[in-house]
Amino acid sequence: MPAEIAGALTVEEAAAWLDPPMPGGVRQLAELLRVLNVPPAGVRPTKRKGRPPYVYDPAELMRLHAANAEWLFPAAPGPGCER
């Protein structure tokens, strides 16, 4: 795994960047990435101790978001349907 990818986003950055935003925010995006086993593109070095944050390819995040949008944002019920 490369150490650093230019233009890659952390989960926090991606949650703020996706349009429309995910209803569950950072937590929902992180869980979706984990459940779908999406590998990170690399890590972003920091000057703090501990594990550096993983970063993800923005194009891959956009494809993931588009593919899952219909399940993340439920549509209004059609005529004659009750919830």
Explained architecture:
It is built from three helices and two strands. It is mainly α and 83 residues long. It has a domain at 1-43. The protein has a two-stranded antiparallel ribbon with strand order 1-2. Helix 1 (11-17) packs across helix 2. The chain is elongated. The model has no long low-confidence stretch (mean pLDDT 81).
Q: Descriptors for this entry?
A:
3 helices, elongated, mainly alpha, two-stranded antiparallel ribbon, 83 residues
Instruction: Let me know the largest β-sheet.
Output: 2 strands, antiparallel
Q: How confident overall, as mean pLDDT?
A: 81
Class inferred from helices and paired strands: mainly alpha
- Number of separate helices: 3
**Mass-distribution shape:** elongated
- The parts where pLDDT drops under 50 for at least 5 residues are none
User: For the terminal residues, how far apart are their CA atoms?
Assistant: 46 Å
* DSSP E strands, number: 2
Radius of gyration: 16 Å
Residue share in helix: 25-40%
Order of helices and strands: HHEEH
Strand content: under 5%
